[in-house]
Amino acid sequence: MSVDTNNREELTSFRKLCHYPAKSEHESELIEVLKVWFKDGFEPLIKLKASSIEDKEKYIDIQTKVLERTDKIVFLLLQSEVYRNALKSILDSWEPCEESDYIRELLILSEEKKASTLN
């Protein structure tokens, strides 16, 4: 998955999600995980891509690996149906943005993996 840096205003949508009133404990837990995913993985990568620092590509490669590790944590939670349902509920109230699109892709991948293990 790739991260686009064209619309920086969209990042505020994630910050709004952080104040989302969780309807269940699973939603609350998932929001906490998504906050870490955003803070440690997604946001730094966006900022790096928009920067003009020396050796930018080297740092982007490193941060991409960090994002992939945080993706794996989210993906692992999404192996559980209760967390997939919690994320669907969260996404229903999350304004469309780059972050929600990215997380939605993780959800789709987890559902595809679940379907393939049932076959």
Explain how this protein is built.
The protein has 119 residues and is mainly alpha-helical. Helices cover 75% and strands 0% of the residues. About 5% of the residues have low confidence. Helix 2 packs antiparallel against helix 3, helix 2 packs across helix 4 and helix 3 crosses helix 5. It is globular. It has five helices and no strands.
What does the oligomeric state look like here? single chain
Number of strands: 0
Order of H and E elements? HHHHH
The radius of gyration is: 15 Å
Major pleated sheet: none
- Helix-and-strand structural type: mainly alpha
Note the beta-strand portion. under 5%
Shape: globular
Poorly predicted runs are: 5-10
For this entry, give a set of tags.
globular, single chain, 119 residues, mainly alpha
Please give a quick description of this structure.
With 119 residues, the chain is mainly α.
